[in-house]
Amino acid sequence: MSTRVTRRQFALGATALAAASTLPGLAFAAETKTVTTLLGTAEVPLNPQRVVTIDHRTDLEPALVLGLDVIASGYWANRPWVPVPEGMADLDMPTTAEHVLNLAPDLIICSGDEPDDEWWPTKRLTAIAPVLTTSFKTNWRNNLLALGEALDRQEPAAAAIAEYDALITDIKTRHAATLAGKTLASVQYFPDDKSFRVHLPDQGDYNNPKGEVMTELAVRTIDPALLGEYGLVSYENMGAALEKADGILFANSSNGDLALLADDPLWLRLPAVANGKVREMTGNTNFGSFYTSRHVAQAFDGLLGLFA
């Protein structure tokens, strides 16, 4: 649970933080840099010691890539591929400025797309510590490079991108024939109404790890004309939408979704299912950065390996 504070305590805490910033050896780094964010300019520490990231997908992942000391973040436990630091505190989500204040951060990373939103209260957070903004409206590379540039940590950002690009190149080389000759579908199942979402290649206007990987691998996929809005497919139309798929990457964002289809006659009738060409990808991969994109690429590698 988050800790609530009174208005007076909030003011006293802000005063204490301001005073602490003038003392040597505390959380505030001596060297700073003026940067431009989605909210304007900010003076940020180049060696922050107490970083709080608000969103586990767009904020925590790049912070960890850059080697920042993250003390707290909004985090979902079903993303085990993210190397969460031992002892990192979980923020209640949506979090509050009061909760963040109690953590005494010297740097905050938060999406700036909707700065007054309760999930990303970026404007209120600027009263606590310098805020670097990320965006859901661009890909993970741009967010990572921007943060690396702001904090003079270009090298780890470039190294992560190089590692990821090498992985994509390796997958494309090893599975060139399959990528050229097979149709693959990435799907997510919603048990409540038994509908599916079919993920499409990246359209370039938002953070989309599955779509970005599909684009980078040049995956042949389902005709969008067979799908509804946002790639949604009703249970009744599952066969028509997925019958041309030679392989299916099943994005299991919760727990046991694929097992729920184990005896489903329409699902079992799909050629990819009948031929054993289904790969389950566990964990929430909706939005993310380097670690999630690498996880998705490795899952596609596993699916492609079923055709070897």
TrEMBL record:
InterPro entries membership: ABC_transptr_periplasmic_BD, Bact_iron-sidero_bind, TAT_signal
Top-level taxon of origin: Bacteria
Gene Ontology CC entries for this record: outer membrane-bounded periplasmic space
Subcellular location per the Swiss-Prot or TrEMBL entry: Cell envelope
Protein known as: Fe/B12 periplasmic-binding domain-containing protein
Keyword annotations: Ion transport, Iron, Iron transport, Signal, Transport
Coiled-coil intervals, chain numbering: none
Signal sequence extent: 1-29
